[in-house]
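Hello Y.,

Per our agreement to keep a running log of every chain we model this quarter, I'm adding this entry. I've kept the format consistent with earlier entries: sequence first, then predicted structure.
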Amino acid sequence: MEYYGLKEAPFNITPNPRFLFFSQKHREAFNHLVYGVRERKGFIQVTGEVGAGKTTLCRAMLEQLGSNYSTALILNPVLDADQLVKAVAMEFGLDVHGLDRLETVSAINRFLLHEIDQGREPVLIIDEAQDLSPALLEQIRLLSNLETDARKLLQIVLLGQPELRDRLNQHNLRQLRQRITVRYHLGPLNFREVAQYIHHRLVVSGAHDGPTFTTPATWRVFCYSKGLPRLVNAVCDKCLLAGCVQQRQRFTYRLVGQAIAELEGNR
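Predicted structure for the entry above:
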């Protein structure tokens, strides 16, 4: 990145909220997340294609919430019911070693009551929720039953691919589906947004006068990525590498094609 004077790589695929580009869709999804949690709506569902930016949005939301919230983030929900409940407890910082499921749920309940008493709102976030089996989704619904006479104790955010919507439409999950009061489907970026996205990430990385993508080059990035930020990152990262080797400040349609060919293993 030294050739371009960048402070850091602009197109890493890690979900760094500092690089989050707020397209209209991403802003709406972010607002749905924050509103659902702050207004204690119980269940919140955000879906989108692989690489649409759901995890980055989630991390940005966590930064926005601040210290008045206790959060547990489950990134790999491919577990059995006992493991899932223990994973939730451990993410909240509880020592549940040697406890069975009933005892673990009881420990979680005590923790949630304590957090509410201390003025903190507990939030459980489950990423890749499309991988949850019906049995695990039912277990999550049971966790949502933890409540006092006045309110629910736990806000639950489900992030997943479009298959999550299909899963929740199953008849046997209707009790859970009826509890989801905030929903948003995160669509891909359009061509104009892809151009803005590329520029945004370069600026955040410290770019001033370059590098730049020509309009045809940006169009080729858009067509390949179909507007999915993760694929935009992958192509543009290859372009930067090629640009450094060829000492180019201006990326062309042809150079993007070379980058795509390398990504696809055709070179």
